[in-house]
Amino acid sequence: MRQVLFGGLLVLLSPWLWAAAAGDGVALDESQRAWLAEHPRLRVGVVLQAPYAEFTRRQQQLSGLNIELFEALGKSLPVQFSWRGYPDQQALEEALRAGKVDLAPGLSQTPAGLRQWLYSDPYLRIPHLLVGERLGTVAIELEQLGATDVIATRMPSSVADYLRSNYFNLKLLAQPSDRQALQAVLEQQARFAVVDQAQLSRLSQESEFATLQVVGDVGLPQLLRIGTRRDWPQLATIIDAALRALPAQTLEQLQNRWLTAQKPGIKDSPRFWRNLSLLLGTLLLVSLALLAVLRRQRSRLEHRLLDARQALALREAAEEALRLTQFSIDHSTVGILWVNWDSHIRYANRAVAQMLGYSSEALVERPLELIEPNLSMDRWLNLWRRVRSRDEAALSFESNCLRADGSLMPADVSLSFLRFRDAEYLVVYITDVTERRRAHAALEESEARLKGIASNVPGLVFRLERPLPGAPVDFAYISEGSEQLVGYPPVQIMAADFGIRSLVHPDDRALYHATQDSAIAAASDWQWQGRILTRDGRQRWADIKARARHLDGEHVVWDGMVWDISENKQIELQLAESRAQLRDLSAHLESVREEEKARIAREVHDELGQVLTVLKLETSMCELAYGELDGGLRERLESMKKLIANLFQLVRDVATALRPPILDAGIASAIEWQARRFEARSQIPCLVEVPEQQLPALSDAKAIGLFRVLQEALTNVLRHAQAHTVAVRLSVEGDQLCLSVSDDGRGFDPQAARAQSFGLVGMRERVLMLGGTLQIDSQPGEGVTLSVRVALDEQEEIA
After folding, report:
1. What is the pLDDT of residue 718?
2. Which residues neighbour 406 within 8 Å (Cβ) at sequence distance 6 or greater?
3. What pLDDT was estimated at residue 717?
4. Contact status, residue 189 vs residue 150, Cβ threshold 8 Å
5. Which segments of the protein form a coiled coil according to its record (predicted)?
6. With a cut of 70, which residues of the chain have pLDDT below it?
7. What's the CA gap between 185 and 180, in Å, rounded?
8. Dihedral angle sign, alpha carbons of residues 748, 750, 752, 753
9. Ramachandran class of 781: left when φ > 0, alpha when ψ lies in -120 to 50, beta otherwise
């Protein structure tokens, strides 16, 4: 297979061999050398795809077939190359249009690419190969395969289009990459895979694909060329000369190095590693058996020592735990008291002493009633019995403890039962909640103030809460303004089976749920406008706006309002209706004006044409009758005939300007005619692309409207664009007809020019009258693309 591929490469490169044998240098004329002297450094753009070009991060340099090819070209040309890497072909073409790239290797010639590149002769032919498992198969013909033989290939790609259009018996399996196409063969999802030789040479070095082999050639070679800028034809000539001077041995070395599949060695064989694993496993089992015998003997000697160490460690851990417990209790921020059944304190930690203003020793043996005056002996015994009987594991209540200075301290008190050795105690936990109660009072005051403000707002104020993602969303608050807005009290709207959704008009509920669900899923702001129904059945327009806020963790709340915008909406609807009427009136006036233009064009062409024809005939008769009698009369008659011919042309121009007759031949013919007239008048090349097949029927009004938009667009290009080329494209996309006009001029900002250009406003209004859409894509310095889309009237074809 390698000899066949290399033989085909030599046949492809045979026109260059004589020039390569003449010497190592490139034969350039004086103009080419002068051009290279003016451009000593060229920018080369490459698509980073192995094995053609890839960037090694460790070495910080580019490598690959195309890189070494240009290094060989650079040795024979007095020029330096600077490299620009791009992730894909689209990014490379955008860089070319932006003027960042002068030439690029590894391109395939396409009709679309001819508008941007000047391609060299092909320097490399890369076949697409049919790959399958090693089953003894020598060669496979695609015609021999049946519908049960699945072929995996990368889609979208040119080879997939080639197989689909030429071999109808094949069953193709789409894969996003060549690697996954080969994996599909290994996983028995497909019998064969189609991969180009370059990718196969890279992937076949991996042990995963060692069982695959080449079983045939698809017959679609990929010819790689070097593309240069279209505005530099000298560079394309120089590159062709350099390629012809490149020795064939250099290309053979590049192919052998980058495009020849390397067979995996013995270390890459799965059988080698399987046998090695079995051997190592056997040795490991023997070693483990010997180790188990030795460890059993050693464990008998260490067992007693471990028992002794464990007992010692447990004793030390218990002592350490006791010390840590005592330290934690003494330095806890919560006050802790050990109280006996007679309500006398047996232990007090530092925290409770600091809270109450006593020392720890001063509280010991004092009655608990000293710090809690309301805790009489009867109440204490009742609490003792309840906690000791285990009816309640812990008892908590709020209290006001008495400090040493006579002031009261708000506190939370918790009781729990403790049995220590032979004694029983109630452990009293005291927490100072002075700041918490102060904050709670302030919060209640703030909520009362907020409810007062919300009740006076002209609308409905609400809050939605979602504690966790996926949890139900409930109303936490609805203001009293709900009764004034919709007639329902807040309690009824906050019910789980009611909510604001029950107020929404049935025709608007789908949009309401869509916007609400989207805002809840993304935890983002919510906005909706629509109709709601009041309690008495009246219809109102409402505007809901809510802002999302994230509280602790994943708790999300939406604070918002429901405004009554019925009056504004009514004005908006009336304004929209008025605009629609004005647009209909403008469309009618435009239609009447086009009809009047057509009538005037016919009258000018017919009436004046007949009069001028009679006048020309009379002049000719006069010349025949009296021209021989007087030489001066003949000159005057000749002058009159020239004036009549000019009047004929003037009449035709006026009639064509009013309504071009070419419109009767169809919109496609009219567009080509107008483009040729523009090209002749402006000397700017105009590329026209219209469908070759017959177009669906289009009304006369839409055909005239599209033609007028094209005239206005070409006029703007001539006046303002300073363009070098213009492209006009007419296409059918579904049930719409699309007209696009593109130029490579200086461009503009559509937002800034929208209010200043009456031409753009006129085109937009004309398209809106046709029921279509107009889009302008432009940036300063990057040209303009104008796209018009109108609906087709019917699907019948016209002649």
Report:
1. 84
2. none
3. 86
4. yes
5. 568-595
6. 1-25, 135-138, 260-272, 322, 390-394, 446-458, 574, 576-612, 614, 627, 648-649, 651-665, 693, 697, 752-759, 793-799
7. 9
8. positive
9. left
All residues at 6 or more sequence positions from 213 whose CB lies less than 8 Å from its CB, including other chains: 131, 132, 133, 134
Please name the amino acid found at residue 76.
S
> C-alpha angle with apex 356: 352 to 360, nearest 5 degrees?
50
Measured between alpha carbons, how far is 794 from 784 in angstroms, rounded to an integer?
Answer: 31
419 Cβ contact partners less than 8 Å away, ≥ 6 residues apart: 425
Which DSSP string corresponds to 253-277?
HHHHHHSSPPPP-GGG-HHHHHHHH
CA–CA separation, 76 and 689 (whole Å): 42
What percent of the residues of the chain are helix, what percent strand, and what percent coil, each to the nearest 5? Answer: 50, 25, 25
What pLDDT is attached to residue 454? 57
Tell me the C-alpha to C-alpha distance, in Å, between residue 512 and each of 500, 526, 528. 10, 10, 7
Residue 17 is predicted with a pLDDT of 34
Q: Cα 284 from chain centroid?
A: 53
Torsion of CA 314, 320, 323, 326, to 10 degrees: -70
Cα dihedral 463→469→471→472 (10° resolution): 40
Q: Which two tokens stand for residue 551?
A: 């509280």
The pLDDT tens digits for 122-155 are 888 888 888 888 766 567 777 777 777 888 888 8
Six-digit token pair at 562? 């429901």
Q: What is the pLDDT of residue 374?
A: 80
**Predicted pLDDT at 2:** 38
Do 39 and 79 form a contact (C-beta atoms < 8 A)? yes
Residue 686 tokens read as: 């105009």
Q: Are 259 and 197 in contact (CB under 8 A)?
A: yes
CA–CA distance, 547 with 545 (Å, rounded to integer): 7
Provide the sign of the torsion angle of the four alpha carbons 492, 497, 501, 507, taken in this order. Answer: negative
Q: For 783, what's the count of Cα atoms within 13 Å in the CB-facing half-sphere?
A: 13
For residues 532 and 507, give the distance between their C-alpha atoms in angstroms, rounded to a whole number.
10
Q: How large is the C-alpha radius of gyration of the chain? A: 46
